[in-house]
């Protein structure tokens, strides 16, 4: 399987489609069935105690898998999340950016399934893990 | 089991602890092991197509279970989400508010487990379902 | 929505299709989007300590949702589980039978999603909860 | 972190504690936070159509994570599964054995979290993925 979108094409697509989060996500690397995305952590993503909020980590896992799938199927498809199971394992480091690594295990005609690991940058142990299923709508001509 | 926090006490606690989302959540009803919370949907919660975003629904499920637990154990405990499995089942109605109903199935010494159903207000079929586990830290004197 | 299979039709279907577990499951009640199934617990389902094993509870949740779906779509479809998230919340009572109650939240053209609660018979608090997604293959003529 | 149980010690423990499945599981390899386990597939594990049943794959994921944890904490602890989220992604090859690879992401004082990938032996793409949380009871002297 080969990529249908390059790193640059993914970046342009992201800025075009999600202008409201422009500058918050950086796509670091893409390869067939793999992608790495950085989330810039700002004050608005923090909870009391200085830690990154759960919804911020959920959104990062969701965006990361979405981009991993689009890289494989191209920008025309409207994939939607149908399930996410996420485990919050450690308290993220306050004010550190997050790095997410997605791996697609199945890229079917109808469903795509993969895992995401999220790290506080500079740390070795992941702060969260997630598995996600996306539904891929049939193409229309 | 009886409530340790009334509806009014939960509302005051929520405003105090989460001033950044003040006015976005309305606690509608609370009973032992049950709670109902409304999320006011604003433009910033929408995705392309006018639908409510996944992270917004995740946050609502998370807040709803958190408040259901605090109502039972009181405001002193610092409960944290350890797992959430969420299914996005239908596209939410554009611009309709969301209503979440949480039910606690287990309230243990260390872990609490429950389910949340999320509806677009005015609709009968749920748009999402979630199950969440919270870790309840030991009390310190 | 109305039932496509009666209680008796489901029982006959179950015995025909799964002869290897004949007599282990009793369908107690069926209604649109709801079903109740009893699992007879035998020594082979027990773990050290006399408690019912996790795989036994998983199988019960899986069978219960499968029958709830078949009751709605009829016996011709070959539905398969795509995801199950299960929480084991309490130790089941040793040697007590299990009772599972399934509720379907979404019955789509392609995916069905529902929740199952499992009880040790005679107890009020559930021992496990599960949410399951089934994929429903397209019909062929 | 280093192993508290060797490959041989794990094998002896498994045969002692779970005599009812003796010979069904082969521990192939163990390393800190990683383990590989083979499940010998027999006729009783098959569903109509010749494919391995869901409960059989669930049990393999559960056993694999359990052994990965015991290898790290030693045989004295009584760890129990609290959550499993499993995705069935492909139909297993009929009559092929299964191979499961577990990776522990967090080994805390109270909770352990990890992922398992399951393969039909000889195939490159996984048939299932699972994430599991185990509760580790406090030690008593």
What report would you give on this structure?
The structure is a homotetramer of 141-residue chains. Chain A is α+β, with helices and mostly antiparallel strands. Chain A is 22% helix and 35% strand. Chain A is built from two helices and six strands. A six-stranded antiparallel β-sheet of chain A has the order 1-2-4-5-6-3. In chain A, a hairpin with a 7-residue loop joins strand 5 and strand 6. The model of chain A has no long low-confidence stretch (mean pLDDT 91). The interface between A and C is small, with 7 and 7 residues. Strand 3 (80-88) of chain C pairs antiparallel with strand 3 (80-88) of chain D, so a sheet runs across the interface.
Strand content of chain A: 35-45%
So what's the CATH class of chain A?
Alpha Beta
CATH homologous superfamily (4th level) name of chain A = Hotdog Thioesterase
N-to-C SSE string of chain A, H for helix and E for strand: HEEHEEEE
Oligomer: homotetramer
Largest sheet of chain A: 6 strands, antiparallel
Report the CATH architecture of chain A.
Answer: Roll
Low-pLDDT runs of 5+ residues of chain A are none
Shape summary of chain A: globular
Query: How many DSSP helices of chain A?
Result: 2
- List the chains of the largest interface with their residue counts: A-B, 20 and 20 residues
Q: Strands of the biggest beta sheet of chain A: in what spatial order?
A: 1-2-4-5-6-3
Question: What is the gist of this entry?
Answer:
Chain A has helices spanning 7-17, 54-73, and strands at residues 25-31, 34-39, 80-88, 98-107, 111-120, 128-135. With 141 residues, chain A is α+β, with helices and mostly antiparallel strands.
């Amino acid at each position: 399987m080969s990529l249908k979108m390059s790193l640059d094409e993914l970046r342009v697509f992201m800025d075009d489609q999600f202008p409201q989060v422009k500058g918050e996500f950086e796509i670091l690397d893409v390869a067939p069935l793999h992608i790495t995305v950085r989330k810039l952590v700002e004050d608005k993503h923090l909870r009391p105690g200085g830690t990154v909020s759960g919804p911020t980590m959920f959104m990062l896992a969701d965006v990361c898998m979405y981009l991993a799938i689009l890289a494989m199927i191209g920008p025309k498809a409207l994939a939607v999340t149908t399930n996410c199971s996420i485990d919050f394992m450690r308290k993220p480091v306050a004010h550190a950016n997050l790095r997410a690594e997605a791996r697609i295990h199945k890229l079917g005609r109808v469903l795509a399934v993969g895992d995401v690991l999220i790290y506080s940058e500079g740390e070795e142990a992941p702060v969260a893990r997630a598995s996600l299923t996306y539904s891929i709508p049939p193409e229309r001509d």
